[in-house]
């Protein structure tokens, strides 16, 4: 079996200039495909709320839901590193809550790392979780859990603040940082400045790696997708064709045939 992706492997990839791939997954079948296709990291994102649960933001997602979905993904992932995304209010309330909830992803769900949103404001959480022996991926720029504070899902352009946040999350012990919704020149500067890997989503080609929400990338999500998404396939279209064919065949009694029946 191929070498398991760990923080050490990721550090080596950054040092050698090999791009890192990350996709989200929320269940066993998708996680298995993602893992077997060679994706390096699987994020069990709190985007779960929007693409699986049908919510309009990530805010309602709970810790128990994240632990459940991470368990399904971790069961499938043989090579990829599984990262559990800490949901809204699972780490903002206190350092103690942050460490306790990060621990649940590792102990109950089988993740190898956690991700949380924020820069300088969550430096003490990143430090405490890392000191507990849990690898932390930070997430700066457009941070969906702060949608109300940002006044919507908007590109973040404050260069000095972004550079400062990136520096602080690295100093606090993060092994990697997601850069979401920021101009590509700023993402390039951050990537050149940091020794830890930057994983971009809507942050241009110069990041050390890329992440996308799988339901967006494969066209499972039929709603609005942000400008930064590339749709690699149209799975919803294929599924609709199959479902419609099934309905027609049952109605017309073309299914089941003898082939699908017992004597
Ligand atoms: O929840 C998620 O899927 C994420 C990615 C968009 C980075 O945080």
3D architecture notes:
This protein is of the alpha/beta class. It folds into two domains: 226 residues, Phosphoenolpyruvate-binding domains (TIM Barrel, Alpha-Beta Barrel), CATH 3.20.20.60; 28 residues, no CATH class. Strands 1-2-3-4-5-6-7-8 form an eight-stranded parallel barrel, surrounded by seven helices. Helix 2 links the parallel strand 1 and strand 2. It starts with 6 loop residues before the first helix and ends in an 11-residue tail after the last helix. The model has no long low-confidence stretch (mean pLDDT 97). The structure holds 3-methyl-2-oxobutanoic acid. 3-methyl-2-oxobutanoic acid binds next to strand 6.
Q: Would you summarize the structure shown here?
A:
The chain has 263 residues and is of the alpha/beta class. The chain contains 11 helices and 8 strands. 45% of the residues are buried.
What coarse outline follows from CA principal-axis ratios? globular
Radius of gyration: 20 Å
The share of residues in extended strands comes to 5-15%
Helix vs. strand class? alpha/beta
Note the total helix count. 11
| Terminal residue distance | 44 Å
The mean pLDDT is: 97
- Unreliable residue stretches: none
* CATH C-level name of the largest domain: Alpha Beta
**What ligand molecules are bound, each kind once?**
3-methyl-2-oxobutanoic acid
Count of β-strands: 8
**CATH level-3 fold name of the largest domain:** TIM Barrel
Instruction: Quickly count the domains.
Output: 2
Q: Label the CATH architecture of the largest domain.
A: Alpha-Beta Barrel
What strand order characterises the main sheet?
Answer: 1-2-3-4-5-6-7-8
Q: Summarize the biggest pleated sheet.
A: 8 strands, parallel, barrel
The proportion of residues forming helix, as a percent range, comes to 40-55%
Order of helices and strands: HEHEHHEHEHEHHEHEEHH
CATH superfamily of the largest domain: Phosphoenolpyruvate-binding domains
């Amino acid at each position: 079996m191929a070498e398991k992706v760990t923080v050490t492997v990721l550090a080596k990839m950054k040092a050698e200039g090999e791009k890192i791939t990350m996709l989200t997954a929320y269940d066993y079948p998708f996680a298995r495909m993602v893992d077997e296709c060679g994706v390096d990291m699987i994020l069990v994102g709190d985007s779960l709320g929007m693409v699986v649960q049908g919510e309009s933001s990530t805010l309602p997602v709970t810790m128990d839901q994240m632990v459940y979905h991470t368990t399904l993904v971790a069961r499938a992932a043989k090579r990829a590193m599984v990262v559990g995304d800490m949901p809204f209010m699972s780490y903002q309330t206190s350092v103690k809550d942050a460490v306790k909830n990060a621990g649940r992803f590792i102990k109950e769900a089988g993740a190898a790392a956690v991700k949380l949103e924020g820069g300088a404001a969550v430096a003490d959480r990143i430090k405490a979780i890392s000191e507990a022996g849990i690898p932390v991926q930070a997430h700066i720029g457009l941070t969906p859990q702060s949608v109300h504070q940002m006044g919507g899902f908007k590109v973040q352009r404050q260069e000095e603040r972004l550079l400062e946040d990136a520096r602080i999350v690295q100093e606090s012990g993060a092994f990697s940082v997601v850069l979401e919704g920021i101009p590509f020149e700023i993402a390039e500067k951050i990537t050149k400045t940091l020794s830890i890997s930057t994983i971009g989503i809507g942050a241009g080609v110069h990041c050390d790696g890329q992440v996308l929400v799988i339901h967006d990338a494969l066209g499972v999500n039929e709603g609005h997708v942000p400008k930064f998404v590339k749709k690699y396939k149209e799975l919803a279209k294929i599924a609709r064709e199959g479902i419609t064919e099934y309905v027609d065949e049952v109605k017309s009694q073309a299914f089941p045939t003898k082939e699908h029946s017992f004597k």
